[in-house]
């Protein structure tokens, strides 16, 4: 397969020694820049060499005009393309849809470890979609407005209710607006039908499953199912919402991840 032109953000480790590579994989409707608000600068200061990729059709990567043609397998190939350019296996950090990309990558490739943030459960996104439709009936119209950058008071409140903690300010939500975009219909269908697919291979490697106590998309009581598949450690961040890397409680999530990563060094 011809390599796609992928845009990546690189924040080198601060200091004379590096604790290794971290590759951050964004979730649905997002871009690599969602990691650069807080996580990339923070983890680079902790001594990690940090990379975040725009998946195909996202951000500044190739393929925006054919976004709907890309599926999870394509995104896993993107991750492999970035990982293969590094001099040693990386720790893979995925968020939401990005956790499925990481899991799909691991069916064929090696990694040093994996951190799955707000992971999509093995049953897929259908349950979460139906729940949100019932509890937040205006969500889908408000999400469409948010993707277009058309924010009003209801849009801000709906995005906060579904994706963030109540402590996340409206000013921050407005500032984050440019970090998001539309998502591939094919990728969303892959996530909807996830329960119908069996993993080809699941390697043994250190893994951490991380979620927010106030996650309205994938509540923390679902984390154990993902953790069981990977024999992973589990951490729940008090009061945090779904979008852990941008939430008001992002630092608590980052510190918990760094504490776990320190045990790998």
From TrEMBL:
The keyword Transit peptide does not apply. GO terms for molecular function: hydrolase activity. Pfam families: Abhydrolase_6. Keywords: Hydrolase. Residues 22-254 form the AB hydrolase-1 domain. The keyword Hydrolase applies. This is Alpha/beta hydrolase fold protein. It comes from Accumulibacter regalis. The lineage of its organism: Bacteria, Pseudomonadati, Pseudomonadota, Betaproteobacteria, Candidatus Accumulibacter.
């Amino acid at each position: 397969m011809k390599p796609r032109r992928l845009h990546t953000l690189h924040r080198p480790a601060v200091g004379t020694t590096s604790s290794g590579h971290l590759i951050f994989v964004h979730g649905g409707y997002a871009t690599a820049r969602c990691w650069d608000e807080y996580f990339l600068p923070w983890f680079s200061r902790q001594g990690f060499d940090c990379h975040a990729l725009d998946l195909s059709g996202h951000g500044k990567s190739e393929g925006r005009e054919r976004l709907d043609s890309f599926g999870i397998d394509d995104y896993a190939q993107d991750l492999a393309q970035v990982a293969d350019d590094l001099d040693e296996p990386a720790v893979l950090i995925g968020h939401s849809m990005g956790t499925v990309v990481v899991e799909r990558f691991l069916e064929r490739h090696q990694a040093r470890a994996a951190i799955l943030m707000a992971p999509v459960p093995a049953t897929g996104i259908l349950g979460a979609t139906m729940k949100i439709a019932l509890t937040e009936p205006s969500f889908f119209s408000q999400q469409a407005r948010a993707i277009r950058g058309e924010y009003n008071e209801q849009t801000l409140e709906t995005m906060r209710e579904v994706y963030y903690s109540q402590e996340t300010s409206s000013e921050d939500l407005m500032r984050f607006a440019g970090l998001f975009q539309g998502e591939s219909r094919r990728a969303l269908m892959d996530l909807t039908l996830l329960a119908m697919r069996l993993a080809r291979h699941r390697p043994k490697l250190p893994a951490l499953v991380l979620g927010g106590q106030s996650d309205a998309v994938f509540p923390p009581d679902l984390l154990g199912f993902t953790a069981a598949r990977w024999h992973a450690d589990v951490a729940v961040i008090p009061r945090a919402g779904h979008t852990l890397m941008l939430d008001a409680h992002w630092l608590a999530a980052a510190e918990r991840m760094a504490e776990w990563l320190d045990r790998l060094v």
